[in-house]
Amino acid sequence: MTFKPATWPRKLRSQEWFGGTSKDAIYHRSWMKNQGLPADLLDGRPVIGICNTWSELTPCNAHLRDLAERVKFGVYEAGGFPVEFPVFSPSESTIRPTAMMYRNLCAMDVEEAIRAKCIDGVVLLAGCDKTTPALLMGAASVDLPAIMVSGGPMLNGHFKGERVGSGTHLWKFSEAVRAGEMSAEEFVEAEASMSRSAGSCNTMGTASTMASMAEALGMALSGNAAIPAVDSRRRVMAHVTGRRIVDMVKDDLKPSDIMTKRAFENAIRTNGAIGGSTNAVVHLLAMAGRCDVDLTLDDWDRCGRDVPTIVNLMPSGKYLMEEFFYAGGLPVVIKRLGEAGMLHKDALTVSGQGIWDEVKDVQNWNEDVILPVEKALTQSGGVAVLRGNLAPNGAVLKPSAATPALMTHRGRAVVFEDIDDYKARINDDALDIDETCVMVLKNCGPRGYPGMAEVGNMGLPPKILKKGITDMVRISDARMSGTAFGTVVLHTAPEAAVGGPLAVVRTGDMIELDVAERRLHLDIPDAELAARLADWSAEKSGANPRPASGYAQLYHDRVTGADTGADFDFLIGCRGNAVGKEAH
Q1: Within 21-121, where are the H helices?
Q2: Full-prediction pTM beyond 0.85?
Q3: Quick one: the chain helix, strand, coil %, rounded to 5?
Q4: pLDDT for 147-174, tens place per residue?
Q5: Is 252 within 8 Å of 143 (Cβ atoms)?
Q6: Which of 250, 418, 508, 525 is most exposed, with the fewest beta carbons within 10 Å of its own?
Q7: Which residue, among 201, 191, 214, 65, has the nearest Cα to 135 in the 3D structure?
Q8: How far is CA 563 from the centre of its chain?
């Protein structure tokens, strides 16, 4: 931790717009004053942007307008001037083809909004899965002082005496209906219990994972990740964050000071300890790219491989985010990592302190929720990075959500060429498949879907479910919801739609999975694999047609592979250049 605060007072960036008596300055100030603003709000004090992903079409974020008001209280108290602005809000539950396709659009919106607007620092309001990485990606590219407030998870669900996790029980109940163990009427009845308050998923899904990643990176105040959305302490967090960003501007404490390689390593280890979503892999890789930090899949395996999963939350465990907060939340987990020698303790945070200073005195109030290391859900958690002739650039698997007996497996491939092929055939009792087979789904990666949808945790065939089988090995180039579970190999790269080896797997091929050895192998001769790849083309396969126009075409043409974060190639390594030329 080598940060040295800037001198204060000094002329801030916003005075390029508002300072002086020139025609340009009067132009900028006069239009702002039509909102009834006192003149002294533009006198050189920090102008703080509140970057809000509020939207009624993003249910996880529909309460963020209230949090924005609380941020404003804090900014005013600390002597700043808050100004709220909206950005594109990709919702996991209401956007098609997938919110992941629009993460990069949101990040571009955030980047250009921050760069173009007359602000000195920014508070990032996020909640739903893609909004957290998108806002951090955009803010990192501009590198003005920035801090995040998460919307927080919803309250626990309950159905017929059972604790219900949003997402996790959607998958479980859906499989139960297909197995004939639950009626459609009961499924609809359970719907009301799945989302019973404002907030994001109450499991350790992607939203909660990414809120945890923001805190572990040091980009949010300690304790931010787990406070329930409707708890009064969530409003307090927003309020004190508003105060803090003013001091960050005065000190000139920027994302480049905080989001270092050591911070990303802390986040990777934290992800292992919480049993976090595999989506964190693709998001942290993209965020690191914006920060000019050299982070690879190998770092995920190196840093996360030996981290025990100690947070007993769905989908890996039995509790939900509400209990996690009551137990002490993420600070307890980070403290455990520090005690185990798995934390860069001096990594700087938005508080201006090292991360260890934030957590060293916290207590664990429930050791059945945040487990002792000797009682960990799995001693080797994190994300397993697999390689082999089927995934030359890597694939990922979440051990804490997988079935131990399937972690070493050899089985016959049953191939689905795309998601439509899967949907057309999976419920057919004539499908030649049994529980020893390996389900393979192609053309669902960043270009293939497009957008790399959360379809990798393919539902099992009803005839398998009716045997009482609840898990099989599944392989795809897709993603999986952070709320989902199973022995699921994801993010296989290169993806099928660009001619990766996954594209030439055929039904009947034998596939070997060995998680301990980090191996994923298509069991055919090298010469045959080479011949199949040489014969493949996008035209022959019908995969990956180029969209005619618009953002979809930009996405198709410029998105990178999952192994590098699925960002746009022209945006990687673009940090800086915060102040542009004015138009007037």
Answers
A1: 23-32, 64-77, 100-116
A2: yes
A3: 40, 15, 45
A4: 999 999 999 989 988 888 888 888 888 8
A5: no
A6: 525
A7: 214
A8: 15
